[in-house]
Amino acid sequence: MRRYETAVERSGSAPGIATCTAILTCFRRPSWTDANFPADSVARGTCHGQVISVAGASLSEVVGAILSVLPLDEFVDAPVRRMAVDVTPDELPEVQQEVQAVIDTVSGKHWPMGVLERFAFYDAARGCYATVLTGERRFYGHVLIKKGAMPPED
Question: Would the pTM count as exceeding 0.90?
Answer without folding.
Answer: no
